[in-house]
Amino acid sequence: MGRMVNEDNNGQDFDEKSHDSIQRDYLRISAVLSIISHSKLSLQLEEPITPYEESLLKILTGITVGGKTVLDTHSISITPGKLVGGNFSFKCSNLMPLSYYLEPLVYLVPLSSEHTSVKLELPREGEGNEEFYKQFSTLEAFCSASTLILRTIGCEDASFRYKEPYEVIFECSPIRKIEPLDLSKEGKTKRIRGTVQVRALQPSLGKSAIIGAKKILSAVCDNVWVALASPPGKSEPSITISLIAEGTNSIHTADSTVYAKELEVKEKANNSSKYLANSSLSKILEIAGRKEKAKEDTPAQDDSEYGDSSVPIHEKCERIGTICAERLCTEISFGGYFDTTHQHIPLVFMSLSGDHRVSRLRISKLTRYTIMLLRQLKEYFRVTFKFDELEDGLIAKCVGINYNNLNMKTF
């Protein structure tokens, strides 16, 4: 959802990155627009193709017919085929979360020939890249934002069923064309919902995170509901919190995943054993304790966000909820129709809209990912967006290309 590696601003300019790096960062955008516009895509890469890029291209090839995708160690060539509907199932590389693979499908499935059901799975064995996972939305956050935009363009039966973070099933029927969108009105938050998932840790830690979140959110909205889940099975000990604020004309999300080793930097395992659901965290804490002991003779450095050993672990978990709630409040205060993480999703559909009328979207501030998407839309569709400045944001406007879904069956 998303927040692909190096897709956020991070204070960098585009010129600071190599052409190869930019191509890799925005492969999903290029592949999606190539398929929609039936334009051939060829990329020469300096670094070898990664397993998650192979998984992505396998998915995009699988939902089309008549096309051709050629992968070499340092090159990608896509000759787009026709988008077809049906039932599909794919197993993905766990180096990236499912929201990474799901976003291209949100753009493409509504333009297929018939009702489509796509199941994506991650292997439960092995561990993903924690840093990559933190730069993408959780399934709950991404699916909530995507459901709103899909139903806005006419996909009333669009639905997501997921088991965070290992499985998601996306179902949607095709649409003939997209009417111009008006997503410019400012709305008020009606309710806030969310989930705290505690994996391989004591569920009471999740309750502390909920308490921390509600302390902030109760001042913003009277209707706040955050559920606690403790899924069974082996996994990396962690706490994941997803918060969604739904309004009359808006949806904002915030999420965070904190791993056990971030919670406990200086706590000894024997002092924390009562919080464990299995022995995996004990081993982590024991190793962390040995590393900290070896650093006792070196100058002290700042602790991590949650790693202050003088703070009880329940207070740290409460802080997780508080920080995520504060992020959500910040997104709400920006005033965009969508939060900054998902603001780019409607832009593709706006560029495809018809009837020669203007589509509008209220945006808080442009992210790096959004800027690159705007450039790609101009390159592939010759659609140029104009912006009206507001006191607290922007109104993005464009006239779409009047795209008609010729893949859709007429009888």
From TrEMBL:
Q: Which GO terms describe its cellular component?
A: nucleolus
- InterPro entries per the UniProt record, alphabetical: RNA3'-term_phos_cycl_insert, RNA3'_phos_cyclase_dom, RNA3'_phos_cyclase_dom_sf, RNA3'_term_phos_cyc, RNA3'P_cycl/enolpyr_Trfase_a/b
Question: Listed GO molecular functions?
Answer: RNA endonuclease activity
A Pfam family reported for this protein in Swiss-Prot or TrEMBL: RTC_insert
Location of the RNA 3'-terminal phosphate cyclase domain: 27-386
Task: Tell me which Gene Ontology terms the entry assigns under biological process.
Answer: endonucleolytic cleavage of tricistronic rRNA transcript (SSU-rRNA, 5.8S rRNA, LSU-rRNA)
Task: List each copy of the RNA 3'-terminal phosphate cyclase insert domain by range.
Answer: 185-257
* Listed PANTHER family: RNA 3' TERMINAL PHOSPHATE CYCLASE, RNA 3'-TERMINAL PHOSPHATE CYCLASE-LIKE PROTEIN
**Name of the protein in its database record:** RNA 3' terminal phosphate cyclase, putative
